Amino acid sequence: xxxxxxxxxxxxxxxxxxxxxxxxxxxxxxxxxxxxxxxxxxxxxxxxxxxxxxxxxxxxxxxxxxxxxxxxxxxxxxxxxxxxxxxxxxxxxxxxxxxxxxxxxxxxxxxxxxxxxxxxxxxxxxxxxxxxxxxxxxxxxxxxxxxxxxxxxxxxxxxxxxxxxxxxxxxxxxxxxxxxxxxxxxxxxxxxxxxxxxxxxxxxxxxxxxxxxxxxxxxxxxxxxxxxxxxxxxxxxxxxxxxxxxxxxxxxxxxxxxxxxxxxxxxxxxxxxxxxxxxxxxxxxxxxxxxxxxxxxxxxxxxxxxxxxxxxxxxxxxxxxxxxxxxxxxxxxxxxxxxxxxxxxxxxxxxxxxx
Length: 355
Ligand code: 9MR
Prior knowledge:
Pfam families: Glyco_hydro_10. Belongs to the glycosyl hydrolase 10 (cellulase F) family. Keywords: Carbohydrate metabolism, Glycosidase, Hydrolase, Polysaccharide degradation, Signal, Xylan degradation. The protein has 355 residues and is of the alpha/beta class. The protein has one domain (40-352): Alpha-Beta Barrel (TIM Barrel), CATH 3.20.20.80. It is built from 14 helices and eleven strands. The protein has helices at residues 2-20, 35-38, 56-65, 77-80, 90-101, 119-122, 128-145, 171-176, 180-191, 208-224, 243-255, 281-301, 321-324, 343-352, and strands spanning 43-47, 68-71, 81-83, 86-87, 105-113, 152-157, 196-201, 230-233, 236-238, 259-268, 307-312. The strands form two sheets. An eight-stranded parallel β-barrel has the order 1-2-5-6-7-8-10-11, surrounded by five helices. Strand 10, helix 12 and strand 11 (307-312) form a beta-alpha-beta unit. Helix 7 runs parallel beside helix 9, helix 11 (243-255) runs parallel beside helix 12 and helix 12 packs parallel to helix 14. The N and C termini lie far apart (56 Å). The model is unreliable at 1-25 (pLDDT under 50). Residues 72-73, 115-116, 157, 234, 264, 321, 325 line the site of ligand 9MR.
């Protein structure tokens, strides 16, 4: 009986302890031949329930190679919201359970994004106070629900357009003005005081006007005490993206004291939109070199305490958004269509070891 009780304790206590943990921090073990095992900072992947637990190879790589997870789609407003005050939590709950079971940190993506405005919000009518109300409610409800389950949030995603660093004219900006972004951060902090709060965007490494606009926002937020902890540099790049811009954005953001998350890394090799392109050794070598440059820049430009994570946007080439969404033949990730590590995987590990 005594034995049975201690066995029960041995089995149940760790599970209870894991569930009681407010802010799961990632496991720092694993084989040195894996991305997370080799790196002195968290290494993540964007995961989707379309594949997780359904595709064995995908799930095995996700468990073995990464110690941080971002929800590719299911925690976006359209993934969660079913109507005012109505939410669909089940898919996200299962991702939370996966992260707890496998001791991975979970990064929430994203509270507010112009591409993910729920249908009922699009047809909402009301004055600006009413619009402020629905924005605040969404952030409060979602960030409260995931309190203690996520370590961090992309609070606002892609607020700047691709034209001269101007703000994107999303429904939120139309109804609430430019400063809605700052208020989103305040609402997120109110709902989850422990979560690290990020602004997340793409092309900051290659669009100087967009970078300048983002830096102005960061400086303005610092002056006004808006609770911004870090920046997500999506890093959807190609083998031709200049290294100088990659370094510059990391240096500028780290110099402002922010946490830096390389939040959606992938490196396209199909720079000519060739529909017959295949993954030649030469192209894969160029891709590996670009990944090496990103990781080196992260290690050299960002002080250790500010290195939040490097996250790849997906697991393997066969499930990357580039093929599924951009409908473009490409091979942008660190694992191939058969879930085997590519040259870029070796380059990542070499770069964290200073090679
Ligand atoms: O990879 C995501 C894809 O599956 C979705 O269809 C798409 C629209 O929701 O979003 C993709 O992820 C985007 C991310 O949320 C924000 N940065 C750009 C990413 C690629 O489009």
